[in-house]
Design a protein that fits this description.
The protein is an alpha/beta fold. It contains 27 helices and 23 strands. It binds methionine and zinc ion (ZN). Zinc ion binds next to loops.
């Protein structure tokens, strides 16, 4: 019989209970016990719900109050010294590592966060050194396994595997040069043995051990480590399901097939093509294959017929008893349930499956593959076939104009009229001084702004009243910038709820949920728009506010747009059309906006692409294809203007070295990047690759409320000038100011302007 499984469930709770409970605890409005009580309720509810859908393997232990990687660090005592001996409870140390702590004389910054593979989820990066003192402080997987058992639910505990845990970490500041976290494996393994042994003793039959790094190129060098680890662990652990997701195993399958594991999970949603190779590689072993058929990364209903075909292929090779139907990854990246949505049309609702609906899907597909004669299963299959057919019919009614326009894109559409030097000469008309100062776009999104937006939504404010309010905000932001002495101004983006959602709501082709929250990091959740059909623009989206802002100042005003790749990467994309096509549709819509802004006399236009890098494929051999269409999309969006119009782009990351040629190929007149963490290595790459356009490496970090001093900024500029010509340097913060307060914003920008004035004297 084919069984079914879910790899992990969202933590937030159907009504965002966890977010609110955690934030209330942070705000001293509730106790640790209150928080743990809410958490236990949510866990129980999730287990019960998943079980009620007929799923055989129910996950436990993957729940988290902040981040599952941080949970491992805390449980194994991987706690950097700056968080120790502060007199904090274990829970507060945990949160201090996640988000920093500034209270009662304690002042520690947060640990670094990184994107979880190619998702928009961020994990807290563990820090290791030769002196890392591993201890199994508590056994979270065991505790939650027992908790579920007491509630009458037998679960399959989930643990992040030792190799991924180490490889995802980084050397701590105190580590010796050249130290590699993976060298700690022999020291770490005994603790994993203990953890897994305790699970077995408590009665767990299976354990899911996640090793997502197996889909990365670098895992190929770790065959020996995998062998060492899993030989040890398998000897004491419950039966191990080794879980991989988000990509292909490729040649790693060779050594994985030799590990003493009981089951292997692969992602067939992202990489259906790997089924045969993997199934054949494990054919002569006893390893069970868990087929990740139901997407853990997207919200579209599974196409049962397609999954059944893949399932049958696996059964042909391995037999029914060696096949499990599963979600492709944890459902962490999907919202909890479609049942909460009251505003989607019935037609739209019929297209989607959120986490709970996906649990039903794996159960039904497994039942069909087991030749179940159950009438309910037959009905569910029939209903799915109908839903998929309706969606396909809808897709056929596409917007032909948009598709034709994408098909008609020519290489010329991607090129500015002249090369950069000629454009730079024409842009002298902007009248910017040397070392022009500017900001990245948003100014503080105050409580008042959020309230006004809410009131507009509830119709407590009329559109006219709201527009008046926004005008006032813009006036204040413009006036402040003039007073403080910034050169290239922005309108401050007060009208935007979010840099992606704002555009999604104005473009055709998107739909929105009310409760479709997905964890981004900690207690921060986003509600990604869903691309449902061809994307187009019916009317200008930003011209009104940008022109208004320009009308009240003599200084140049920078128009502000979110780029095509970022809009796409921070939305749930369609699955019937390639991401490339969706990105180009977005680019064409934005191109029209850019041209309209120019026609409205906006002389500088910024198109933000902070998400270009996170969309980079996990395997290097897939990079070129992605970067080609990603960069082309940006060029398509921006190349429609005259030489005299200055295009800007912004990226809030600094990992440039490996994608440098693509950054160059964007051919933006000005780019601003995150380099505030004094990462001069980054700037040397700009020198090395001979980057010639304008560049504004952030002179301070806006993610912290700290005000950078004037001497500090001057030092930064001085450092930058060792690598970048004074003729090409812009002076700006490293990202938008929306999360900051006005107080520190004012003080910081004043220092920025002073430092730029000083530079003009030093390098006349
Ligand atoms: C995450 S990048 C943000 C760019 C945007 N223009 C802002 O200033 O907020
Ligand atoms: Zn940014």
């Amino acid at each position: 019989m084919v069984s079914s499984s879910v790899l992990g469930f969202p933590r937030i709770g159907p009504k965002r209970e966890i977010k609110f409970a955690v934030e209330s605890y942070w705000g001293n409005k509730s106790s640790a016990e209150d928080l743990q009580k809410v958490a236990a309720e949510i866990r129980k509810q999730s287990w019960t719900n998943v079980k009620s859908k007929g799923v055989d393997y129910i996950p436990s232990g993957e729940f988290s109050l902040y981040d599952h990687v941080l949970d491992h660090s805390a449980a194994f005592n991987v706690i950097p010294s700056r968080y120790q001996n502060l007199g904090l409870s274990a829970l507060d140390v945990y949160f201090a590592m996640g988000r920093g702590r500034q209270a009662d004389g304690v002042d520690v910054p947060a640990s670094e966060m990184k994107k979880w593979f190619d998702s928009n989820y961020h994990f807290v990066v563990p820090e290791f050194s030769g002196t890392t003192d591993f201890k199994l402080v508590y056994n979270k997987a065991l505790n939650e396994y027992k908790e579920a058992k007491e509630a009458g639910i037998n679960t399959r505990p989930v643990v992040l595997g030792p190799i991924s845990f180490l490889v995802l970490g980084k050397p701590s500041r105190s580590a010796q040069a050249g130290f590699q976290p993976i060298s700690l494996l022999p020291k770490l393994l005994p603790l994993y043995e203990q953890l897994l042994k305790e699970l077995k003793e408590a009665g767990a039959e299976w354990v899911q051990v996640d090793e997502p790094i197996l889909v990365l190129d670098k895992a190929a060098d770790l065959a020996a480590e995998f062998k060492q680890a899993y030989t040890k662990l398998a000897a004491v652990a419950p039966k191990i399901l080794l879980a991989t997701y988000f990509g292909r195993l490729e040649s790693n399958v060779k050594f994985v097939a030799e590990l003493p594991i009981a089951a292997l999970h692969i992602d067939l949603d992202r990489e259906p093509g790997q089924l045969e190779e993997v199934a054949n590689a494990i054919k002569d072993t006893k390893i069970v294959l868990s087929l990740g058929l139901v997407s853990g990364r997207n919200i579209w209903k599974n196409d049962f017929n397609r999954s059944i075909d893949l399932g049958r292929k696996a059964i042909d090779i391995l037999g029914e008893d060696r096949v499990i139907v599963a979600t492709s990854s944890s459902l962490l990246h999907t919202p909890v349930t479609l049942a909460s949505e009251t505003k989607l049309t019935d037609e739209q609702k019929d297209w989607f499956s959120f986490a709970l609906e996906k649990a039903s899907e794996v159960a039904t597909i497994a039942a069909v593959l087991s030749n179940s004669q159950d009438a309910e299963v037959g009905k569910a299959l029939e209903a799915n076939i109908q839903s998929i057919k309706k969606r396909r019919d809808f897709e056929k009614n596409s917007d032909d104009t948009v598709r034709k326009r994408v098909a008609a894109i020519t290489p010329d559409d991607l090129n500015r009229k002249s090369p950069f030097p000629a454009r730079a000469a024409a842009q002298k008309a902007l009248g910017l001084p040397k070392f022009p100062t500017t900001t990245i776009g948003s100014f503080p999104q105050t409580k008042e702004i959020r309230q006004a937006r809410l009131k507009l939504g509830k119709k407590e404010l009329t559109q006219e009243e709201y527009d008046e309010f926004i005008k006032k905000e813009i006036q204040e932001v413009v006036k402040f910038q003039e007073d403080v002495g910034l050169d290239l101004l922005v309108h401050g983006e007060p009208e935007r709820n979010d840099m992606v959602q704002y555009f999604g709501e104005l473009l055709n082709g998107f739909c929105f949920t009310q409760h479709g929250w997905v964890q981004s990091y900690g207690s921060r959740y986003v509600r990604p728009p869903i691309v449902v059909s061809d994307v187009s623009r019916s009317a200008p989206m930003t011209v009104k506010w940008s022109s208004y802002a320009q009308s009240i100042t003599k200084q140049p005003m920078k128009g502000m747009l979110t780029g095509p790749v970022t809009i796409l990467n921070w939305s749930f994309p369609r699955v019937d059309v390639s991401r490339e096509v969706q990105s180009k549709q977005l680019a064409l819509a934005l191109r029209d906006e850019v041209v309209d802004l120019e026609a409205a006399d906006i002389k500088a236009i910024q198109v933000d692409e902070p998400a270009i890098r996170e969309g980079l494929p996990l395997r290097r051999k897939d990079w070129d294809a992605y970067l080609t269409w990603a960069v082309d999309s940006f060029r398509l969006a921006t190349a429609g203007v005259q030489d005299k119009t200055q295009t800007h782009s912004h990226f809030c990351y600094s990992d440039f070295n490996d994608i440098f040629p693509s950054i160059q190929r964007l051919d933006a007149d000005v780019i601003s990047i995150e380099a505030s963490k004094s990462d001069m290595k980054l700037l040397s790459a700009f020198q090395e690759f001979g980057y010639k356009n304008y560049i504004g490496p952030g002179v301070y970090d806006i993610h912290s409320p700290r005000v950078p001093s004037e001497p500090e900024i001057k030092d930064r500029i001085k450092d930058m000038l060792t690598l970048i010509s004074p003729d090409y340097l812009f002076v700006n913060p490293d990202c938008g100011l929306k999360t900051r307060q006005w107080k520190e914003t004012k003080e910081s920008l004043k220092n920025v302007v002073e430092a730029a004035r000083w530079a003009r004297k030093e390098w006349p």
